[in-house]
Fold this sequence. Notes:
This protein has a two-stranded antiparallel ribbon. Helices cover about 60% and strands about 5% of the residues. Helix 7 links the parallel strand 5 and strand 6 (about 255). It has helices at about 20-30, 40-60, 65-80, 95-115, 135-175, 195-220, 235-250, 260-265, 270-295, 325-350, 360-385, 390-400, 410, 415-425, 430-440, 445-455, and strands at about 1-5, 10-15, 180-185, 185-190, 220, 255, 305, 390. Mean pLDDT is about 95; it is low at about 455-460. It is elongated and about 100 Å long. The protein is mainly α and about 450 residues long.
Amino acid sequence: MRKEKDLLGTLEIDDSLNYGVQTKRAADNFSIKYKRVNTEIIRAYAIVKKACATANYKTGKLSEEKHGAIISACDDIIAGKHDSDFVLPAIQGGAGTSINMNLNEVIANIGLSYMGVKKGEYGRLHPLEDGNMSQSTNDTFPTAIKIAIIKLLRELTDHVMGLQTALQQKESEFADIFKLGRTQLKDAVPITLGQEFGAYAEAISRDRWRLYKCEERIRQINIGGTAIGTGVGATQKYRFAVTEELRCLTGYGLARAENLIDATQNLDTYVEIAAIIKTLAVNLNKISSDLRLMDSGPVGGLSEIFLPPLQAGSTIMPGKVNPVGPEFIKQIYYKVIGNDLALTIAAADGNFELNPMLPLVADCILENLELLRDGVKFFNENVISGIRADKKRCREYIEKSWSLSSLFIEKLGYEKLTEVLKESFKTGRSYKEIILESGLLDEETINHIIKNNTESKNNE
């Protein structure tokens, strides 16, 4: 065991641990059974610490030995070698200070080992004086969050692109399959199954574009603003150097915000990004709802399409297969909406120069990105790509529905068509049969009208 002290006193720390006294206090204080801080934040924060150390070294504030030790420690963290040292829950008080100190202490103790010095010998490499030099939680933590968001945004965008392609392929595959359109769950005029999937693809295409464009907002970082955005404790040379280092390390087009005070205290950018992510979830939920309905049956439902059978659906009803794929996506949607509401309230609840609820905002938005990234990949590979159509069932619904009769208004007139439909309802015979028997139209004309009005109009 080793003894470490802070403002509140002294604690004993197990020698096997790389974190120190402030992390131990935070872990004891926020001892809830909840998930830990997202590893994407930890890795991104190590990148930030690496950039800060190099900027301090280049501006003459950090020695070569300390710089080398910090860089080695950060590289290990980025590689995932010390994940067990980051023990704090994602929800915590202090605006992220505990997360920052967790990084500072772990970096210092790993760095000390590279220097051949025992853990806790902070006279050689100090968590705050060296690891946190020219920094504050209030500029490094938001910067780390934004780097993590950009990484996940790009991964999500790639999968959304794949989903769009899969939907477009189904649009082509189902282009000649006519089915009954529905409005308010009631029969409407005919549409092709391909047109429906084309509409889904178009919605996902908009999501893809929104995700791509929203990265521009999140690239604006407040690094160098330190405590409240005024830059106290950080030189101008450092501010320029650290931003450039971050651009080099990440490959992202990061830029220092024009107003560092604004960028430190206001979280509206996160709300904007979250809303765009939520919009994708809304579209996925709508598509999933449609697919569940079209797959319903096989006897008591629509049964217009066959979803890929992923697993047995019942422990008591043999042969039952449920639409678990769309159900999975719908539950992701519910979770995304809940997280979006939580982060929106948290973002609105800041005071003056800082929002202390940033840990919750970060956890919610990163979880949403991960959920949707993995969910979209699953939806594409396990649901959309394997959908088959029941052409016969689709055609049967069209022929039995009165909705198709609206195509004959121009030839027969509203009143005459109403009489035909009344007769159809009264006798149970199809309106097409009644039209033919009455001599109002011949079969060639009827088929011509149906064909002309059920072909895709998208290319006109």
